[in-house]
Write a structure and sequence with these properties.
single chain, mainly alpha, flat
């Protein structure tokens, strides 16, 4: 019980800092769903998150350039 509470509290604190915006939230929900309901290997989930992160970063840089901001 105590260890589960510590893990949950840490996950909550990290989530509040990291999950800002809809895209990171969707990736986190997809990973959670894959692990809990489909029992996918977390290593494969991380490998799948890499291209998603790259696509998101490229999209953000292009979006900033269109607004006239410096990347």
């Amino acid at each position: 019980g105590c260890v589960a509470g510590l893990i949950a509290a840490t996950a909550w604190r990290m989530g509040k800092k990291v999950l800002k915006g809809i895209f990171p939230l969707l990736i986190a929900l997809a990973a959670f769903t894959g692990m809990v309901y489909f029992r996918w290997n977390p290593g494969f989930l991380m490998l799948g998150a890499v291209p998603c992160g790259i696509i998101h970063a490229v999209w953000q840089m292009r979006h900033q350039v269109k607004k006239g901001e410096k990347p």
